Amino acid sequence: MSGIVSILTNGVFLCHYAAPNISEVAKESIKTIYGVVAYTSETVVFLFLGIGCFTFDLPFAEMGWGLLATTIINLNISRFLNIGISSLLVNCTRTKETRISLKTQFVMWFAGLRGAMAYALALQASEKLKTNGPIILVVTLLFALLTVIVSASMLNPILNKMDVKNKHLEG
Fold this sequence. Notes:
Layout: H1 2-18, H2 24-55, H3 60-63, H4 65-91, H5 102-111, H6 116-128, H7 133-162, H8 167-170
């Protein structure tokens, strides 16, 4: 966890102090490099997820479909509560024009984060928890793959339907 916090803190300070002092060409170069690194990292995570589904001896029979269904329901409820409560608290400090709209909150809930951290934690649990760890891993892999395939394929039409756009790109 400390690695994530240190990278985040470093990014905040670099954005505040270094960004105003570099040229436009350097900004574009850095933006391109970060894009390449982000795309490569995302590809590696999805490779690990795909490989994890077929290389580990996963206990599909022990898991049962009820556990997967309950997990999907519980994770979506917890994501809904997390987005709702966080947005409510953030909106208390914002002006009316800059508040997070209900449409944006819905897109945040639907898109959600999935993949790398959950997979890493589930992989660690599968090694440390001998009885329930492999079941945690299989549920995590199935949930990540299901949400990536279903949610990601439906995300662009939902963004268009909800008319949620990045205001920085609209100029």
